[in-house]
Each structure stands twice: as C-alpha cells, then as structure tokens.
Design a protein that fits this description.
105 residues, six-stranded antiparallel beta sheet, 8 strands, extended, mainly beta
Length: 105
C-alpha cells in the first residue's frame, strides 16, 4: 500500500495470520439462565485445548439467534487451567436462544 502525503510517498505492507484451529466447548453450566438475573456460567473447553488458560486472553459473547444484531458481551471472571474451564458473568439479556462465541488470543 502506498500513501502520498505532501508529495511524499510512504509505502507500507501489512499482513495477518489467522489460525484455522477451532476448539469446541464440552458443556455450559447451567444450560439456561434467567434473562433478568445476573449469574455466572461455567464453560468447559475440550481437554485437548493446548494453551495455558489466562483470563485476559479470552473474549466471550452471546448473540441472539433470532436477532443477530443483539449481542451481549460476557466478562471472563475466572479460569481453571487444570479443569479447562472459563467462568463468565452473564448480566441479563432479552429472552431467547443465544449462540455463545469464545475467542482466544
């Protein structure tokens, strides 16, 4: 990419690498939550998740299945590397079904 500023050309090349690895969750406990009550959810990762769990390396969100523009971001409050679990805080949302997405750095 080239950018011209005040008759000076600046060249820059950017590249990214995206990993194609996908890991499934084993379970989410409890399997449902009240839309009006704040609660903790425990998400179990596959036992072969090869990275050390660090709370700051994860982002978790819940996307409403019928209205994908409605997204609730869940705060990761605890991780257990031995059990391969994340504990997230659910602050309430519209009633409905949600798809949980977990991203790891």
């Amino acid at each position: 990419m080239e950018i011209v500023i005040n008759n000076q050309t600046v060249s820059n090349s950017l590249s990214t690498v995206t990993k194609t690895e996908k890991i499934s969750t084993v379970a989410i406990t409890p399997s449902s939550a009240s839309p009006v009550l704040k609660s903790k959810l425990v998400i179990g990762l596959a036992s072969d998740f090869s990275y050390t769990l660090n709370r700051d390396d994860f982002t978790v969100n819940a996307t409403n299945v019928t209205n994908p523009s409605y997204i609730r971001y869940l705060k990761v409050i605890e991780v257990d590397d031995t059990a391969k679990t994340l504990t997230v805080f659910f602050g309430g949302a519209w009633s409905g079904d949600y798809q949980i997405s977990i991203r790891h750095k």
